[in-house]
Amino acid sequence: MKYPVILIESDEGFAVSCPALPGCLSQGETREAALANIREAIQLWLEVAQEDARREAASEVGTLAEVTV
C-alpha cells in the first residue's frame, strides 16, 4: 500500500511525516535517507496499531476478523 508523505528540507537534512498516520514522523540527512526512515516508521506504526487493535478486540465480546485493503 502506498502512503503520501511530506518532506520538508532544512539545514540539517529532511523532516518527513505521513499525514494518514498521526504522529508518524522521521528525518534523514538526505531525501533518500528520510524516505527510507519514514518507510520503516510507517511499518512500525502499522505493527503497533495492529497489536493495539488485537489487544482491544481481546477485551471485547465478539470475534476478531481481518480484511485486506
> Can you count the beta strands?
3
Percent strand equals 15-25%
Mean pLDDT: 91
Major sheet strand order: 1-2-3
Could you describe the largest sheet, including whether it forms a barrel? 3 strands, antiparallel
List low-pLDDT spans: none
By DSSP (H or I, 4+ residues per run), the number of helices equals 1
- Based on Cα principal axes, name the global outline: elongated
Please give the share of residues in helix: 40-55%
List keywords for this structure.
single chain, 69 residues, alpha+beta, 1 helix, 3 strands, 42% helix, elongated
Overview of this structure, please?
Helices cover 42% and strands 20% of the residues. With 69 residues, the protein is an alpha+beta fold. It has a 3-stranded antiparallel β-sheet, covered by helices on one side. It has 1 helix and 3 strands; from the N terminus they run βββα. The relative contact order is 0.15. It has one domain.
Present the secondary structure layout.
Blueprint: E1 6-10, E2 13-17, E3 25-28, H1 31-59
Antiparallel strand pairs: 1-2, 2-3
